[in-house]
Design a protein that fits this description.
By secondary structure, this protein is an alpha/beta fold. Helix content is about 45%, strand content about 20%.
C-alpha cells in the first residue's frame, strides 16, 4: 500500500468511527484523491462522492462556484477553493469536504501563481471552511501527488481537532 493509500485508510478509519462521510472537489489532481480513497476496501461506508471540476464551467455547473469569484480571483485561489468545498457539501450527503485547485504544470503558471501553486479548502457541514495555499516543487506528477497528500493530511488534522473540541 502506498503512502496516499495509508493516509486514506487512516482517514477512513476516523470517519467510520464518527459515522461521517467525505466528499472531494478536485481540479488539478483530476480525481487522484478520490482514487486514493476508493482504493481502500469498504470506502463506500465513508466516501460519498467526488467531483472532478477541471474547467471553470464545471466548477460553476457542478459546485455552484460563482462566476464572479472565478473572474475576481481566478480558478487557483483560496476563494475558489472555499466555494468548491462548500459546493461539494451542498451537492452531496457528506459531513466533510476537501477541495483542491492549482497549477500542476508544466505550463499554465504566472508570476503571481507559478507552477506548483495549489489552493486547498476543508469544510465541515455547518462549520467554518478553512483555506490554504501551498507551493510544491517537482514535475506535474510530483505536484499532484503532494497535493493529494496535503489534502488528506489536512482532513486528518481537522478531524482530530474537531474530535478534541467535541
Amino acid at each position: 500500500m502506498n503512502s496516499l493509500e495509508n493516509l486514506a485508510e487512516q482517514l477512513g478509519n476516523s470517519l467510520l468511527a464518527r459515522g461521517e462521510l467525505l466528499t472531494a472537489a478536485e481540479s488539478c489532481t483530476g480525481g487522484w484523491l478520490a482514487q486514493s480513497v476508493t482504493a481502500i476496501a469498504g470506502s463506500s461506508a465513508w466516501f460519498d462522492r467526488g467531483f472532478v471540476t477541471y474547467s471553470n464551467a464545471a466548477k460553476m455547473d457542478m459546485l455552484g462556484v460563482p462566476e464572479t469569484t472565478l473572474a475576481r480571483h481566478g480558478a487557483v485561489s483560496e476563494p475558489t477553493a472555499r466555494a468548491m468545498a462548500q459546493g461539494a457539501l451542498a451537492h452531496s450527503l457528506a459531513d466533510w469536504s476537501v477541495a483542491i485547485t492549482g497549477v500542476a504544470g508544466p505550463s499554465g503558471g504566472s508570476p503571481e501563481k507559478p507552477v506548483g501553486t495549489v489552493c486547498f479548502a476543508w469544510a465541515q457541514k455547518d462549520a467554518a471552511c478553512e483555506a490554504q495555499t501551498c507551493h510544491f516543487s517537482g514535475d506535474r506528477a510530483a505536484v499532484r501527488e503532494q497535493s493529494v497528500a496535503h489534502a488528506l493530511q489536512g482532513l486528518l488534522a481537522r478531524l482530530e481537532d474537531s474530535r478534541l473540541q467535541a
